Amino acid sequence: MEGSVAYDSDLNLKATELRLGLPGTHEEQQAVSNVRNNKRPCVENETAPPPKAQIVGWPPVRSYRKNNSQPVYIKVSMDGAPYLRKIDLKVYSGYPELLQAIENMFKFTIGEYSEREGYKGSDYAPTYEDKDGDWMLVGDVPWEMFTTSCKRLRIMKGSEARGLGCGV
Amino acid sequence: MMFSFPDEVLEHVFSFIQSDKDRNSVSMVCKSWYEIERWCRRKVFVGNCYSVSPRMVIRRFPEFRSIELKGKPHFADFNLVPDGWGGYVFPWIAEMAGAFPWLEEIKLKRMVVTDESLELIAKSFKNFKVLVLSSCEGFSTDGLAAIAASCKNLKELDLRDCEVDDLSGHWLSHFPDTVSLVSLNISCLGSDEVSFSALERLVGRCTNLRTLRLNRAVPLDKIANILRRAPHLVEFGTGTYAADLRPDVYSDLAGAFSSCKELKSLSGFWDLVPAYLPAIYPACSKLTSLNLSYATIQSPDLIKLLSQCPNLQRLLVLDYIEDSGLEALASTCKDLQELRVFPSDPFGAEPNVSLTERGLVAVSSGCPKLQSVLYFCRRMSNEALVTIAKNCPNFTRFRLCIIEPRTADYLTLEPLDVGFGAIVQYCKDLQRLSLSGLLTDRVFEYIGTYAKKLEMLSVAFAGDSDLGLHHVLSGCESLRKLEIRDCPFGDKALLANAAKLDTMRSLWMSSCAVSFGACKLLGQKMPRLNVEVIDERGPPDSRPESCPVDKLYIYRTVAGPRFDMPPFVWTMEDDPSLQLS
């Protein structure tokens, strides 16, 4: 359909966008282009659902209901700080709140997030250890996926931080 | 020659007419009735704050005492409306503050309320009595402190489902000694520093308190003291309902619950520990409403509890209740009118509980008065839906959410068109419907044909073509609100049914196939609509006109385009030369 072709060739503003918004929301555009092509999902797959990208606003549950389950405490360390802190990830509804809380806790500023360049504008980069034991940059995956896979947080400082995600 | 009553007589007659709809009808009978009615309307309801300006409302109704306003579209509840879209209440408060100081009630839903607005309310309305903020945001406990301190006649303060910046629990201490609240709902507050002594004192001196909904921070061992100070409570919401089991705390609690002989509604129960649940048994036989949707209580404990509540009319619960619990509900709670089952693990790929269509079928069969359903589940069949429809022809609200989008009938692997078709066919009074699962244009044909009383429809991941949207817009005579996401609906149906939009409150379409060109055309042709394009990718005119817009919000208005839009919202302009009169 003309619509989706036009969309693919538009100015790719996302990559240069500097924002601390919900990353991963653009994934849903893929789902939409399927919709426009009138594709129906393979019904035979019903018994083994493939891992799906999180869709914004689906299922339609209010954010205060998502905090139902037991608190998920994770350790937060900051390079150079004398001791670690613990926070309950369930308390936050998204990356902006989480990063604000960490900034307040350790009294520093994180830079602006962008998909392409990571966190620019400060010496710090927030990272987390995921279920596979890998150290990832905070903010790349949808929030809900992050809260279920994050095991601990580490605020990296200095050259180690600048090495992450930047072309420099 | 028309026989006419003196104005005072008509005014007296009109005073018995409270419903907004009826008042509107009265005002359209003739010019003199319009005049009389507008001077004596005491409650104003504005379903979309941008459909009319505050000045117009005040001009038409110079003597109202109560106003209810709604702001953001419903899908804002699910983070589909970006922050900063709008819905600011301040302009309304500012106009009303200037116009008349005798305002008593303000009720807001999905609006942005700042501390500045709250302070202005506190300063401006000397007889202010009722503040209900539902799903609002933008304020902190500082604003609440201003309300508490200045509104000496405050009766109701209800902050249901709001997002409040909780700076300090001390705002509660700002209530004067003379205040006599009837209703206090602070269940949304997060603060860990709720001043319990201030809370207890406040509850103690509000001898007319009938509704009290506490927040999660209030621990279990404080509840007994609070309840003892308010033995006439009708509606009560606990805080965290968890603690190490201690016999003295338990018996204290049980005693307190049994001393509240008028309790009809219970809620709260965060982190519920089953050992403390029997403490509420003394109140169960009179309960008509129970909200356990924050309680991680498993099915066997739920069944025991529900067997004590034969008069239950309204139940909110997590899917831990499972089919077995719903079957028990169906056999013990014959007066049930409303059921809401929420998902305990909405993002899990696999089911974590045994809750299926069977539970809903059981309730539909056992509870003849069932009218309103919100049900999250992971599988459904046409057969079940048809059974449910036949069991419950009195449904007014039916909202089904099958968690995985486009899930087919699990028995036949067909779309669920026939099932939802049965719902609209048998439930002739259906006012609200939410669809889910695998659905083709067929279901919309059924809806357009049968759902003549339908006022609100929510659609996601459904349909094949514009025909689907066309069926709904051309067939649903009572439609007021339509919200659609991720459906292949485009320009044709929308433009062909443009006139329909004048008869509706609003239309929301996101991640659909409506082009920017069509939005512009619609804006030009329809002077009484605001056609708003919401697109965080950048200005829509930086892309070809055939490019679909990200989000579209269309609403009828007599106030013209608004001027408080953020940079990612554009209102399509009117073009008088293009309008078809």
TrEMBL record, chain A:
Assembly information from the UniProt record: Homodimers and heterodimers.
Gene Ontology CC, one term: nucleus
Similarity comment: Belongs to the Aux/IAA family.
One of the GO biological process terms: regulation of DNA-templated transcription
UniProt KW Transport keyword: no
Keywords: Auxin signaling pathway, Nucleus, Repressor, Transcription, Transcription regulation
Gene3D superfamilies per the UniProt record, alphabetical: Phosphatidylinositol 3-kinase Catalytic Subunit, Chain A, domain 1
Function: Aux/IAA proteins are short-lived transcriptional factors that function as repressors of early auxin response genes at low auxin concentrations.
Protein name (Swiss-Prot/TrEMBL): Auxin-responsive protein
From TrEMBL, chain B:
GO molecular function, one term: auxin binding
Any GO BP: pollen maturation
SUPFAM superfamilies associated with the record: RNI-like
Keywords: Auxin signaling pathway, Developmental protein, Nucleus, Ubl conjugation pathway
Pathway the protein takes part in: Protein modification; protein ubiquitination
CC terms in the record's Gene Ontology section: nucleus; SCF ubiquitin ligase complex
Superkingdom: Eukaryota
CDD domains membership: F-box_AtTIR1-like
Entry-linked Gene3D superfamilies: 1.20.1280.50, Ribonuclease Inhibitor
Keyword Coiled coil on entry: no
Every F-box domain range: 5-46
Compartments, as annotated in UniProt: Nucleus
InterPro entries: COI1_F-box (IPR041567), F-box_dom (IPR001810), Leu-rich_rpt (IPR001611), Leu-rich_rpt_Cys-con_subtyp (IPR006553), LRR_dom_sf (IPR032675), Transp_inhibit (IPR041101)
Protein's name according to its UniProt entry: TRANSPORT INHIBITOR RESPONSE 1
